[in-house]
Amino acid sequence: MRDRDWDVTRRAVGSLSVWIGTAALFAPRWIAGTLGVRPDAARDDVALPLLVRLGAARNIAMGAALLVTPAPQARRTTEVALLLTALDAAAVWTSRATGDVRPRSAVLSGLVLALASYGAARWHRR
C-alpha cells in the first residue's frame, strides 16, 4: 500500500471512529438500540449507558491515535485496533448466542472485523 493510500485510509477510519465514539458518548441508549440491543434493554438497563460510554471513549482514543500516527509507526496502532475489534466481535457474538442482541449486530460485527482484518493485512504486506 502506498503512503498516500495509508494516509487516506488512516484519516477516514480515524475520523469515523471519533465521530461514532462521540455519538455513543452523548447518546448511548440510542446507539445501543441502533446497533441491535433489545429495545427493553436499551431503554431500561441501568448499566448500559456506562458500558457504551466506556466503549465510546476507547473508540475516540483509537480514532485519535490513528489520526496522529504517521505511516511508519502505524503498524502497532493497526494491530491494537484489530485486537480490540476482535474482542468487540466476540462480545457481540456471545451476546447474540444468549439472545441479548439482534442478528444484525452479529452480522455488523463480523463485517467490521472482516474489514479491519483486510485493512491490517493489506497494510502489513507493504
From TrEMBL:
Keywords: Membrane, Transmembrane, Transmembrane helix. The chain crosses the membrane at residues 12-31, 51-68. Pfam families: DUF4267. This is DUF4267 domain-containing protein. It comes from Geodermatophilus saharensis.
